[in-house]
Write a structure and sequence with these properties.
Layout (H helix, E strand, L loop, with lengths): L1 H7 L2 H9 L3 H22 L3 H17 L1 H26 L7 H28 L1 H9 L50 H10 L8 H21 L4 H6 L13 H12 L12 H13 L17 H10 L18 H7 L18 E8 L2 E8 L4 E8 L4 E9 L2 E8 L1 E3 L6 E6 L2 E9 L3 H19 L1
Antiparallel strand pairs: 1-2, 2-8, 3-7, 4-5, 4-8, 6-7
Helix pairs in contact: 1-11, 3-4, 3-5, 3-6, 4-5, 4-6, 5-6, 5-9, 6-15, 7-15, 8-11, 9-11, 13-14
Length: about 450
């Protein structure tokens, strides 16, 4: 109960929800403890439903935020190795060590590691439809935009005094010590964590090893948020996956949740201390549990508000590898802000005056349009970034239905935006352009279905 209160009401957690509105990251925090719990159960009490539970929790973590999953996964692997090593040392005491005994211990370690490792691998298979295309098609996305400009990590290090400053605001992360928001660890969670250090030596080997593990993880992740760690950020590429130094608090918060609860280990079941400490945690964070009063400058929640926010925050970052010049604005955005409904993606500057083209229906991942042209060769450009999977079909209308006549060539535009272009034949025809699965996406989907069936069967 106390660990959950610390984790739930940690200032960073509240900061994610009410200040950053970081939905993906906030929801991913649901699954971090579940995956660690699953690994613990798989090692200490291995059973099929623990493996399946670990798989589902890990898959949901990956699907919620791939960034958080990348940051947390190495810690999960180290935790697995720790628990396996502790269990083997418990069953194979070191004072009886010999070469043969060591081989037996290694075999036992591998045996103990199979259930949790299977859970993680099954979790990967469950969400293969997502990560397999993301991994193989990574080269089709411009990633340089994630590290430059506002996203330069060296502008976002935390100053030591900010770890304990009660200041709370609703601005953005800025270079220097004058951020208009908070990076505090939380005085109550920090105090409970410090108090827990006094009782760690009294624990049995398993719990003591876990406490030391999470204490080290807490120390390292807080260090990575400070400017003193700049050499690690420069030389270790994995560290930069967090993008912002203070994002390592994701793990710090979880570690504090585990450590702060240790001061209650051994208390009687009827003790009121958990409730008292829990109320103290709530009291320390209660002033922060609110959203900024008043209406945001971008307006209410809408596409128009989203466009304004992206322009003012310089977050127009969704570009593919065929985009040579990252756009800073879009004509569509002007339409959204003006409250005009967007009804077509056709770039009419690519349509000659003697040609007619009109969109009949369009959805998020498809568009159906008809055209009439007397030109032998015509290329129509759509306001969509080209990406593998965009496919065009030539249709003929038969009554109220359409019949597929054949496929049309789709290619990236030879221009700065790398948009989708479709070569169409002469005459009156209909064209359906839609985003479809590539072979690797189909493989990932099949693997996910098979793994889901396996989990349900288990």
């Amino acid at each position: 109960f106390l660990g959950a209160m610390v984790y739930l009401y940690a200032p960073y957690h509240i900061f994610d929800i009410y200040v950053r509105a970081a939905l993906a990251e906030a929801v991913s925090m649901v699954f971090i403890p579940l995956v660690f719990w699953g690994i613990y159960e798989c090692v200490e009490k291995p059973r099929w439903n623990a493996v399946a539970g670990t798989a589902v929790a890990y898959a949901l973590l990956l699907l919620t935020s791939n960034l958080v999953a990348v940051v947390v996964t190495p810690l999960l692997i180290l935790y697995l190795l720790l628990l396996g090593g502790v269990r083997v040392s418990r069953e194979y005491p070191r004072e009886r060590f010999s070469f043969l005994y060591g081989l037996m211990g290694l075999g036992e370690f591998l045996h103990v590691s199979i259930p949790p490792a299977s859970g993680l691998l099954l979790g990967l298979a469950l969400c293969a439809f997502f990560w397999l295309p993301a991994f193989t098609e990574f080269r089709y996305v411009r990633t340089d935009q994630w590290m430059g400009g506002y996203y330069r990590y060296w502008d976002h290090f935390v100053y030591f005094f900010q770890l304990f400053s009660p200041r709370w605001g609703f601005g953005i992360s800025e270079a220097g010590p004058d951020d208009k928001l908070s990076y505090q660890l939380g005085i109550v969670p920090f105090a409970l964590t410090v108090l827990s250090l006094a009782v760690i030596p009294r624990f049995r080997a398993n719990l003591r090893a876990q406490a030391i593990f999470f204490l080290l993880a807490l120390t390292i992740t807080v260090f990575l948020s400070l400017h003193a760690s700049v050499l690690l950020w420069e030389r270790v590429s994995f560290v930069r996956f967090a993008q912002f130094p203070w994002r390592w608090f994701l793990i710090s918060v979880f570690c504090m949740g585990f450590l702060s609860s240790l001061i209650l280990v051994g208390e009687q079941n009827r003790s009121a201390l958990p409730l008292l400490f829990g109320l103290l945690v709530l009291a320390g964070s209660y002033p922060y549990i609110r959203a900024e009063p008043g209406k945001p400058p971008e307006g209410g929640v809408s596409l128009a508000g989203l466009m304004r926010f992206q322009r003012t925050s310089n977050e127009m970052t969704g570009c593919t590898a065929w985009v040579r010049e990252i756009p800073t604005w879009s004509p569509f955005a002007d339409l959204h802000i003006a409250g005009i409904e967007v009804k077509t993606r056709i770039d009419y500057t690519s349509v000659p005056p003697d040609t007619q083209a009109v969109t009949l229906e369009w959805h998020t991942a498809s568009e159906l349009f008809g055209y009439l042209t007397e030109r032998d060769s015509l290329t129509i450009t759509l306001n969509l970034f080209y990406y593998p999977g965009w496919t065009a079909y030539l249709l003929e209308k038969e009554g109220e239905k359409y019949r597929v006549v054949g496929k049309l060539p789709v290619a990236p535009e030879d221009g700065p935006l790398g948009r989708v272009t479709v070569r169409v034949p002469k005459g009156l025809h209909f064209v359906l352009v839609r985003f479809e699965d590539t072979p690797v996406r189909k493989v990932g989907t099949a693997l996910s279905w098979a793994s889901a069936i396996l989990c349900i069967a288990v």
